[in-house]
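Board notes (copied after class):
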Amino acid sequence: MIGVPIEDLADRVGRYTWFGQSLGRLLSGWAADEQNPRARLHFHTLGRQSEVHGFIWEVLLPDSPALAAVERIAPFPGWEGWPGAECTGLFHTFERLAVLNRAILPPLEVSLAEFLSVLGCVAEAPERRHAALALSDVRGFISTGEDLLEGLLATSGNTEIAKRLARRTVGSAEGAGGRIFGPMPDMR
């Protein structure tokens, strides 16, 4: 592997720092007022883990000739203003889980996998180790979130409404009323 130019590495690490911090704040708010105990624990755990990843990414931020490390902490292009009302205005557990699992975490998973594939083994070893850890965590949280969502669907009297909501959440043309959220821009 050749590795990543320092400017590109610093930009990506700064963006992961911003995303971890932003997702942590969003999920902490969701956990605070969530009535479902399993979903509350999921949001709290993922929120804390996102904050930890944001902190670790920040520690890994390199200074570069063009910008100091802290100047690199910025959203991915197209994610400016996130999370907005489309996230903070969600009050139902179905909505929150569907948005998290079908619109927020999948682009993060793809981004981390792609980033991991281009990192060098020696010069970027710390970033490589952390990207692998973050990717593993994201995949685990997607799996747990899907289990929670499916469990809620199975026990709900509103299964069909919840399924339509999940389709609308990810921007499908199907479902009454159009999409609620997504698809999100790439994280590159």
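Comment from the instructor: Residues 170-183 have pLDDT under 50 and may be disordered. The first helix runs from residue 6 to 33.
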